C-alpha cells in the first residue's frame, strides 16, 4: 500500500483468466491502465515461486502451485488504495487469494481471485470456506460452473452444486455477464465461465465483458457502488501534476527579458517546455497504430466468438500476435528512453537505485500483533511499531521505588555540588591575592 493511502468511494474490479502471466504481462499492463482498474483478479498465472512478476503501479499478491506451472491466482491492487492481505484457507477444489479493501462509504469489502479447474466438481465445503473469509465479499474469477441462472447456455455439475449452495445461502448471489467469457477455442461453444459471487454487498453491481487480450478468456469488469454511464466503459486518465511540475522545474529556466523579441522568444520556449513535459508525462500513452491494432483485434474477437469460423479464429490469432509484438516494442522503447535519461548525479534516478529496485522482490508484510490487537494496513503497522518502540525505550519503573528517598538523594547531591563550587572559588581567590 502506498504512503498516501485513500479509501475509494466505489470499486472497479476486473478478472481475467490470463493463461500465462509471463506471456501476456504487457497486455495486462495496458488493460489495467486503460480501464482504470482498482483491483485486478488474475487466474491461471502458470507461475512458480521462483518467478518474478509485477504490475507497474499496483501491489501484486500471488499464490502458485508448488513446482507446477499450472493454475495459480493473483490479485493486483492499485497503489494508494488502503488495503490488507486476508488469509484464505486451503481448499480441495478452489484456488483463491484475497485482500480487504477499506472503502470510503461502505466499510471493508473483501475481494478474492478464484480459480476452479474444469476437471473437478466444486465441493460445497469449499464454497462455504470461501464465503467465510469476509463478512462482505466479492469472489470473482473462473469458476467453470455453468448454469442458466447466470446466463450460461448449459449447466454442468459444478453449476448444479453452486446453485444448490446459493439456494441455502440467501446473502450470496451469482452475477454473470450477458456475453460469453470463454471463446471455446474451436472445440466447444463459447460460454460464460467467469462470474462473480457477491456476499452481503448492498450496492449496485454491474458486470460486463471486455473483449480484450489474446487469452482464450475475455476479461470481465465489475463496477460496484456506481452505475456504469450509458454508452459502455468510460476510460479516465489521471493527470500526475507532481510529475508534470518536476519536469517543468527540471527543464525550464527563467530568462532575463528586456526587449519584446526576448519576451516572444521566452514565450515560445515556455510553450516548448510545456509540450515536452506533457509528452514525457504521457509516455505511457500507446502509439496510435497500436491503438488501432487493439481495436481491430477487439472486433475480430467478437466476430470469432459469434461465428466460430476457423478462418475468423485464424485472423484473431494473427492479430493477437501483432498486438503482443507492438506492446513489447512500445514498453521496451519506454525502458530504453528511461535508462538514457538516468543522471549519475541524481540519487533518485541513479543507476544504483534502478538496479536495486529491479533486483528487490518486494513482498507485502502480513498482519502483525500490536498493543491494540491485529493490525493490517501500513499506517496501523507504523503506529504499532511506534507504540512498541515507546514501550521499549522508556525509563524502567520498579514496583518498590521510593520517590521520597530519590528526592532526598537528589537534594543532597545538589548541596554537595554547590559546596564544591564554593571551595573552588575560595581557592582561586586566595591564589590571585598572593
UniProtKB/TrEMBL annotation:
Family matches, as InterPro entries: Endo/exonu/phosph_ase_sf (IPR036691), Endo/exonuclease/phosphatase (IPR005135)
Lineage: Eukaryota, Metazoa, Ecdysozoa, Arthropoda, Hexapoda
Protein name: Endonuclease/exonuclease/phosphatase domain-containing protein
Bias-annotated ranges (Acidic residues): 398-407
GO molecular function terms listed in the Swiss-Prot or TrEMBL record: catalytic activity
Region: Disordered, residue numbers: 395-415
Residues covered by the Endonuclease/exonuclease/phosphatase domain: 14-217
Source superkingdom: Eukaryota
